[in-house]
Specification:
Layout (H helix, E strand, L loop, with lengths): L2 H22 L5 H23 L21 E2 L1 H14 L2 H19 L3 H5 L8 E2 L2 E2 L7 H4 L6 H9 L12 H20 L7 E2 H10 L2 H7 L7
Antiparallel strand pairs: 1-4, 2-3
Bound molecules: iron/sulfur cluster.
Length: 226
Amino acid sequence: MTDMFQEQLKKTFESERDLVIKECGNNKNSSSLNTATINFYARLDETIAGASTHIEQGVHCKKSCSYCCYFRVDVSANEIFAISDCMQTSFTNEELKQFVERANENKKQISMLSQAKRIVTNIACPLLVDDTCSVYAVRPSMCRKIHSMNVEACKHSYENPEDRNVENAEHPVLSAITMTMLIAARDGFSSHNLDDTVYDLSEVLIFALEDSKYKKRWLNGKKAFP
Ligand code: SF4
């Protein structure tokens, strides 16, 4: 990595973190924190869309392509609460019930696997419905940052989850920039004394949906989930 690129990443980190700090506001209420998350997502999308026009192979990711929806999804608490708020207002009772059933089934499957086995086992994200993300507009940053330049490599990885030698289909420069943005956003929330632990979406989303005490814990500066 050249000095110039390192300097660029440093600037990206500082500017993204400062924007998130500002957008969270001083009152740290649920609405301003959701806005900070959504605005961060917009900048992440914009960065990928802008860069993709310069990538010769193009970015192959599109809505309803779900090869990457079978891995563990790392999320921070602000993302979980943005998703659970969205689900509570836009899902029907039946859709919520079905999600809870999928999430419980998912947890049961994961609990029977070692960490090493989990990495090489396809388990559908509980938010995946008919090959489409059911919370696409508020999908987590780990999902948004994925930008594959080779859908065949994604397909191969999905069909051969035990093959750890599969080509990394992301652009290395864009990957470093988007990862930097993601870490900076977490740092922005953490600067407001908000838990920035990385959680497994499959484990904690169900808690956020079922009991508002977790969001209260988070807003009060505590670790959001046990
Ligand atoms: S949150 Fe949506 S995009 Fe991310 S893994 Fe789950 S279904 Fe796929």
